[in-house]
Structures are given as C-alpha cells and as structure tokens.
Design goal:
Layout lengths: L1 H33 L23 H17 L11 H25 L7 H31 L5 E6 L3 H11 L6 E8 L10 E4 L3 H7 L4 E4 L10 H9 L3 E4 L10 E7 L2 E7 L5 H21 L1 H14 L5 E7 L5 E7 L10 H5 L19 H9 L6 H6 L4 E3 L6 H5 L14 E3 L12 H13 L3 H17 L5
Helix pairs in contact: 1-2, 1-4, 2-3, 3-4, 9-11
Length: 476
C-alpha cells in the first residue's frame, strides 16, 4: 500500500513538473516578447530583436519535455523527500534543468539553428526553475500543514531499545514536520525495559503487526545480531509492512555510506570521495574548457617562454617528470624547465638541505634554478604546459598537487588518501601560502578539500588562484 502511494505521489509530481515546463513556455515567450517594447537593450546592440510566432518554437518545448523526463530520472528528482531538506530537492531539479539546457544548446549547435533566440531559451529555463521552486515550496508547506492536523503521517515501531534505537527515536522526534509517529518498542534482547510504550517482543512480531497500526518497523539492533532479524524482516514483507534496518556497522568510519545495486544484489559502498556523476561531469567539462582556452589563447606566451628558456641555459624547453595521479596511476607531467639540465640527478643530495619537513623538498635559493626559471616560478608560468595534462584527463584544473613516486613511498597510510582525487594545477595549498606551509598542514588542506569538495569550492579556489599568482605569494 505504501509503495503504491509513493508511486502515486511520484507520478503526480512528474505530471505537475511537465505542466510547469509547459506553462513556463508561453510566460517566458510573453516576457521576452515584451522586452523590446520597454526599451531594453543588450550591450553592443541597438535594440533587442523581436521573436517569431510562438508556434516556431514548439520544437523547443517538445524537446525540453522529453529531455526533462530523462534528466530528472538520472538526477533522482522523484525520490522520497520526507526526511530530506528542501535544498537537496532543489539542487537535483537545478542540475536536471542544467542538463536539459546543455543538451538543447548542443542540439541547436549541431543542427545550425541560428534562428532560435538564445535570450528566449535562457529565459525559459529561468522561468521554469522559478515555477518548479514555487511548486516544491508550496507542496512542502501544504504537507507540513496536513501533518500538523494528523494527515499524511506514518506510524513506526522500533525493534531494539539500545543506544542505536533510542538515538533514532530522538532524532525523528526533533523533526516533527516529517510526520513520523513513534508507536512503541519491540524488545529484541535482554535488558532493562525502555521508557515509553512496549508493544511486545520480537518473537511476537506477527501478532503485533496484526494488532497495531504500523506503516514501518525499524530494526535498530547491534551488528552482531543482524542474522537474528532475517525472519522478522521477511514477516514484515509478508504482511505488507515496510521494514528498515538501521546500519551502524562502522561507527568510527570517515567514509560516506551508500547503497548500490549490482545485478539485483544490494551492496554497501564506503567512499570518501565525491560520487555525484553530474557534478563530476561538470568538473571535467570545466577542465576541458579552461585547458583548451589556455592552450589556444596562450600560444604566443608559450612561444615567448620557450625562446627565453633556450636563450638562458642549455637543455630542453619542457621538463618531463613522472608523477603520481589518481589512486596511484603514474603519468608524465609537463612543465617549462626552470632548472639547469640534469637537476634531477642532484635531487637526493639537495634533500638533506630541505626547509620543509616530510618527504618533499623545498628550499630558498635553490642553486639548480636558472635566472629565467626563478622568474617563471615566481609568476607560475612554468605550470602552463600542465594544461595539456588536464586536457588529456591525467590532471584537473583544481585538485591536490601531484607528488613524485619517491615522495609517495614515504607517505604514511592516512596521507595516501590525497591520491583518491585527480591531481590539479591549483589547490587549497596553492592559494594558502604554497611553500610557506608545512608538509603536515599541506596534507590536511588536501584532505579537507576532498572531504568538502563541490563545484563551488573548485570555482572559489580557481578565482583565488589569480591574485595568488599575480602577487607570487609563497612561490619559490
């Protein structure tokens, strides 16, 4: 019954969203068509051009509706949100619309549709998001009002009265707007009786389900007794009552726990790295865009630096070095040569004079650096060839700096987690003082970046890199 109700709600939301997309279309057309009449002008244009009749753009509407259906499913827009905050739902809606907009732009480019107003298309998706936002906020307010009056609530019982079960009940009680009503405890093992209503013991579950009005039974038992509840979970399934198992397998874990399905087999996944496919795709798209622009527009700078290096000292223009990338993959990193030819052979001798603790080498006034190389390092121009590594997919624009294999061999185990994300040209360390920061702090910054990664964090670091490079702070 609950599954049927959930499917009904999901279907209703899908229909509402399609209505919102359809309603936003004429509204956006009317707003865009009225803009020239109020005298709005675009920079560099005499006036905003008018639109064709609305029927000319019906293809955009149909395409958007079809793409939205696929994008919303990909982004899990129609999952249950009873216990999730509003921003989670809005974020999934926003990224679905972004996917639709990108796909529509790609289709238009491929079909050479120069007659479609880009301002109208952009305005359409902005209005659509506004309508979807208003719809979700309104639905949540209605749901909360209904739950306060006793409607749209779900009753549940908890099997197990230990710390895990009590913590669950307290957390649910702190969110009354979820509409979850605690009916009582079902005792699973020996121990003092809990506070509150006791419905019975676990071996009486069948009779309890017949006697009580329960929508769900939550099993909150210690992990060593999980095998004992299998029959009880099956009994809930037989009697049509939802069953949930509260997992506390590794209470001291750092990794996030996710449930996956492998050919019908449920699999628990523990990971400390970002898993959002849409956000990671956007990160890769950003990498390709930025690296492509730098390599294309920066060609004159590349040529000038190459000439300066050749005139300054003997040796190749580019310095190639083995570095360690994602999860230990080795690749060849490219940089403009800033040291004398053969500087690698002196590396082990120079490490004894390092001014930074840990397996890395940093020193003021390194005698191996050439005059031009010192200027390249101060301006970070020596890093420019790494955009080729970014374009190849070996690096990212933002990410932990790639270490050399010899350094990785000296890592402590907890420090190896910084290899769990693709290395980058710039990172938190880069904008926080670079060589002025000790090795331990450097590792902490990289791990904090991985744990808190988001597209906005990447954008923030990217923008902060610009003044850091211009001032040369911490560069050696």
């Amino acid at each position: 019954m609950l599954k049927q109700q959930a499917r009904l709600v999901s279907t209703g939301l899908k229909l509402q969203d399609l209505c919102m997309l359809s309603l936003a279309f004429p509204v956006a057309y009317w707003v865009r068509d009225e803009l020239p009449r109020v005298g709005l002008r675009l920079p560099g244009a005499d006036e905003l051009p008018g639109l064709y009749p609305i029927s000319r753009y019906y293809g955009l509407l149909v395409t958007s509706l079809l793409l939205w259906t696929a994008a919303a499913r990909w982004s899990a827009v129609y999952q249950a949100y009873r216990t999730r905050p509003l921003w989670v739902e809005l974020w999934r809606i926003a990224r679905s619309l972004l996917l639709v907009a990108v796909a529509v732009a790609a289709i238009g480019f491929a079909l050479h549709q120069s007659d479609v107003s880009r301002s109208f298309v952009a305005l359409y998706y902005v209005v659509t998001f506004g309508f979807l936002l208003a719809n979700r906020v309104g639905l949540r307010l209605l749901a909360r009002a209904a739950r306060r009056r006793g409607y749209n609530t779900r009753s549940y019982a908890v099997v197990g009265s230990g710390d895990l079960g009590r913590g669950l009940v307290h957390r649910v009680a702190a969110h009354p707007h979820w509409g979850l009503s605690f009916q009582g405890w079902i005792l699973e093992g020996d121990g003092p009786p809990p506070e509150g209503r006791v419905l019975g013991r676990l071996d009486e579950l069948g009779a309890i389900l017949e006697r009580e009005v329960l929508d769900e039974v939550v099993f909150a038992v210690p992990r060593e007794r999980l095998e004992t509840i299998e029959a009880a979970v099956q009994l809930c399934e037989v009697q049509g009552v939802g069953a949930k198992v509260c997992l506390d397998l590794f209470p001291h874990r750092v990794a996030r726990l996710e449930l996956e399905e492998l050919e019908g087999m449920p699999v628990l996944s523990f990971t400390t790295i970002p898993q959002d496919a849409i956000a990671l795709f956007a990160k890769r798209a950003f990498d390709i865009l930025v690296s492509g622009l730098v390599l294309l527009l920066g060609a004159p700078i590349f040529l000038a630096v190459a000439v300066a290096i050749k005139l300054d000292s003997r040796g190749p223009v580019l310095f190639r070095q083995k570095r360690v990338g994602l999860n230990g993959r080795e690749f060849t990193l490219l940089k403009f040569r800033s040291m004398v030819d053969g500087a690698e052979r002196l590396h082990q001798k120079m490490r004894r004079k390092s001014q930074v603790t840990g397996p890395v080498y940093k020193r003021d006034g390194d005698p191996r650096i050439t005059p031009v190389g010192r200027w390249l390092r101060r301006t970070s121009l020596d890093e420019l060839p790494q955009f080729w590594n970014v374009l190849r997919g070996e690096m990212s624009v933002v990410g932990p700096r790639p270490p050399i294999p010899a350094e990785v061999k000296e890592y402590q185990r907890w420090q190896r987690r910084r290899l769990s994300m693709k290395p980058g040209i710039t990172c938190t360390w880069q904008v926080s003082g670079r060589s002025e920061i000790g090795f331990e702090r450097w590792m902490e910054l990289d791990l904090a970046y991985i744990d808190n990664w988001s597209l906005w964090l990447d954008l923030r670091i990217f923008l902060l890199t610009i003044p850091a490079v211009l001032t040369g702070r911490g560069a050696k």
